[in-house]
Design goal:
Length: about 140
């Protein structure tokens, strides 16, 4: 592993610290994801981190890349510090809020599909204007 690659991982000072960090980060990712009513696939879409990596991070089998922690925090609407701290997330999101977030995401996907269909239709209508006949 190159120096550049190794710097992109959150690593504790000892093996025990690293394992503890993996568990903390994984727990926080999963807890925040579930509070928002997101699946791993949903979080993957929001954060541009693969579902496989999210799963590995949540169970603590793989150290999380720093760049992934940043993107996951952004996708979850929390700070990087929220994912690194060994504390229980206290703020309760009412189920109706989580359901609202999930419904908004579904609606956004439907709107995106409709906009793509409209764009495809418009592209078929756009034609080059006919050339004007040359005057003699």
């Amino acid at each position: 592993m190159s120096t550049e690659e190794s710097e992109d991982y959150f690593i504790g000072s000892t093996h025990e610290d690293e394992l503890k960090s993996r568990k903390i980060i994984g727990h926080q990712i999963k807890m925040h994801r579930k509070r928002l009513g997101l699946t791993q696939h949903g979080l993957a879409s929001l954060s541009r981190v693969s579902r496989v990596n999210i799963s590995r991070y949540e169970i603590g089998s793989t150290p999380a890349r720093i760049s992934h922690i940043k993107r996951l925090a952004e996708g979850l609407g929390v700070t990087v510090n929220d994912l690194l701290e060994d504390s229980t997330y206290q703020e309760e999101i009412p189920p109706t809020s989580a359901q609202t977030v999930a419904e908004c995401m579904r609606q956004c996907r439907r709107i995106e599909a409709a906009l793509r269909a409209i764009q495809d239709s418009l592209e078929g209508l756009v034609q080059e204007p006919p050339e004007a006949p040359l005057e003699k």
